[in-house]
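Sharing a chain and its predicted structure for anyone who wants a worked example. Both blocks are below, sequence first, tokens second.
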Amino acid sequence: MSSKLTRDQEREVASQFIEILVDGMDIKTLVGIVTDQMTDYYESCSSIELEEEINNYDDELYDELVDNVTQQYPKQDPANNPTFHMDQAFANLDKEDI
């Protein structure tokens, strides 16, 4: 049944279909979709736009997030980690061995 709809009617059909789809989704699926859409949006922003968006949400958040990603954490060096070899040994055990 193919009918000629006006653009407004097509939008209404699409809107109703979207409502049916969303009503049938669980929270995990909805969160996944929103996360993907927001990731696409914010990754397409320029550096200035991203900073403005974050500052509009919370004045101090951008600086905090920049600090989070620029802090220099020491890499895990087996020589400086006394439990490294023990951790590897436990990771290599089969569940049957425990």
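Comments welcome. The helical segments are 7-23, 27-43, 47-57, 61-70, 84-92.
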